[in-house]
Write a structure and sequence with these properties.
Length: 69
């Protein structure tokens, strides 16, 4: 079992049945729907991605850890 799978399994093991019932439709969608990768980005979208990559390299981002996630 991968490390990520084990981590997710630990979360699931700690959920109540009520919360698992709420999660089930999302998991069903993730299993049933194929992933779609958009390949026809506009120049504006490509520029936004480039800027984000530059900001990340400079450390100019808000980490999930700082948000308590």
């Amino acid at each position: 079992m991968s490390e990520l799978r084990a981590e997710v399994q630990e979360y699931i093991d700690n959920l109540s049945d009520q919360k698992l019932a709420a999660l089930k439709p999302i998991l069903t969608l993730l299993i049933d729907e194929p992933l779609v990768y958009e390949t026809d980005l506009t120049d504006e979208e490509k520029e936004i991605i480039r800027q984000g990559e530059e900001e990340y390299k400079k450390g100019e981002y808000v980490s999930l850890q700082s948000l308590g996630i």
